[in-house]
Amino acid sequence: MKRTDTRRLTTLAIFTALILVLQLVAALLSRFTPLPVSITLTLVPIVVGAAIYGVSAGAYLGGVMGVVVLLFCIIGLDAGGAMLWNTDPLLCAVVCLVKGIAAGAVAALVYRALSGKNKTAAAIVAGICAPTTNTAIFVAGMFLFFKDTLMVWTDGWAAQTGHAANPVFYAILGLAGINYLLEVAVNLVLAPIIVRIIEARQK
Questions:
Q1: Whether 144 contacts 171, CB under 8 Å
Q2: Tell me, what's the pLDDT at 59?
Q3: Residue 42's pLDDT band (boundaries 50, 70, 90)?
Q4: Is the per-residue pLDDT at 44 higher than 80?
Q5: How far apart are CA 47 and CA 115, in angstroms?
Q6: Pairwise CA distance, residues 11 & 140, whole Å
Q7: Under 8 Å between Cβ of 27 and 38
Q8: Residues near 174 by Cβ (< 8 Å), separated by ≥ 6?
Q9: Fewer CB within 10 Å: N-end or C-end of the chain?
């Protein structure tokens, strides 16, 4: 095996472990928040891996995130995900895997398209696109496959906040909004670090 191949496998293995640990932390923290879904903290290693090794690596790392999220849904560590799993296991698995894989692949494509002009800008935009893709597919999956569950969550949120029980408003502001903004903020804050890691690995 070539040295570059060994380095790639080692780096991806490290990122895989990071994804597992960070997603576990996010799932535990979600127990202290009123939202039914947990924030995704794993997008930083996914973006870094996607930027360094391309679309296949991004898709793989995103897929790892999807598998971990799915496992947490199955064992009940993700309370909202457990509701989706109990409603329809197959569709729950599809949403978890597709949104993760797509987030990693899109991040890689965006970084590749922009890195030739400005690596910092490329890392920032890729860092925004990853949670955007992840969140958009999740919300679309809720409307397409889990409308009844979405309405239950909407009614509960409306009762707590006094807002009208509008699923679109809830999905944008309540379900995805806070998590999405936090995920984007984390990626933006860590963007300079992401760039340094990418440059160090590419030398």
A1: no
A2: 97
A3: confident
A4: yes
A5: 13
A6: 32
A7: yes
A8: 35, 154, 157, 161
A9: C
Q: And the tokens for 117?
A: 């002009």
86-102: pLDDT as tens digits:
999 999 999 999 999 99
Q: Is the pLDDT of residue 157 over 90?
A: no
Neighbours of 71 (CB within 10 A): 15
Name the range with the highest mean pLDDT among 71-80, 102-111, 124-133, 185-194. 102-111
Residue 70 has pLDDT above 90, yes or no: yes
| Residue 96 to residues 37, 44, 92, Cα–Cα distance (Å) | 12, 18, 6
Query: In a 3-state reduction of DSSP, which class is residue 106?
Result: helix
d(CA 73, CA 175): 17
Going from the C-alpha of 53 to that of each of 2, 117, 123, 197, the distances in angstroms are 15, 18, 14, 13
User: Which amino acid, residue 107?
Assistant: A
- Global pTM? 0.85
Alpha-carbon dihedral sign for residues 93, 95, 101, 104? negative
